[in-house]
Predict the 3D structure of the following.
Amino acid sequence: MKDVKRLEGKVVVITGVAAGIGRASAELFARHGAIVVGADVDEKEGRSLEDTIKKSSGSMTFVRTDVSNVSELEKLFEVAQGLGGVDVLFNNAGIEVSKGIMETTEQDWDTSVNVNLKSVFFCSKLAIQQMKDKGKGVIINNSSVAGLVGSFSPAYSAAKGGIIALTKGLAADFGQHNIRVNCICPGAIETPMLERVIEFQGDPPEVRAMRQKNYPLARFGYPHEVAQTALFLASDESSFVTGATIVVDGGFTSK
Ligand SMILES: NC(=O)c1ccc[n+]([C@@H]2O[C@H](COP(=O)([O-])OP(=O)(O)OC[C@H]3O[C@@H](n4cnc5c(N)ncnc54)[C@H](O)[C@@H]3O)[C@@H](O)[C@H]2O)c1
């Protein structure tokens, strides 16, 4: 069967591109013909990904960006504008806060909200300006099952729940401009973030086994499984999907 490229020539901004879900998405989107603009604070891994994608004839420009800093985001979107303007934005960057409310400091709260939620708001604002000019656009936000059901980290959950509400608000506001906005809620996915969370909780094999019991599919997910969902949402195959919250969680929230 002929290899169908689902994002041919689309300018796609992905945040948190240097590891985990962001990295898998950049590789997949580039294979589908996207012109990827990748943002991350990790310059070494971001540049190495850029090299890997270019070596396999894909297109990626890495821009070292702290997503919690609005002036750095403005520079990121200037790069996207120079490539023709953003068609797809994947707000993926995020950080975990492995603390209960009594241990969470003001600094922890601010960092969680700034990196996990404020970034989604301002990236979307900058992207929408360019998408309105193009008359079309797609925004995908990476939330979490922690935004839907209780988690042990309220500062993380609050930010992730905020992303779900923001997704619906933007979808309602900008549908008239042909801009679709959707949200993915992954369960536990095998990434460096999950490794850090599990190590923090003590004996890793025991914690893994205990947590996997909560998954009807009896395993954690893989970054490419979230990337494939993001690809569906980024492409015209999801042309009537907006304001949706799609769980990619092996059934975790079905119980
Ligand atoms: N892995 C999971 O189990 C899981 C579950 C649910 C939701 N998520 C969400 O998926 C997204 C990706 O998670 P992951 O597991 O791939 O994480 P990860 O930690 O493996 O990778 C995240 C990437 O984001 C980058 N990043 C962190 N802070 C940044 C900042 N201020 N500016 C720019 N880049 C920054 C990191 O350098 C890293 O490259 C996050 O939003 C996370 O909350 C992950």
Observations:
- The CA atoms of residues 6 and 42 lie 28 Å apart.
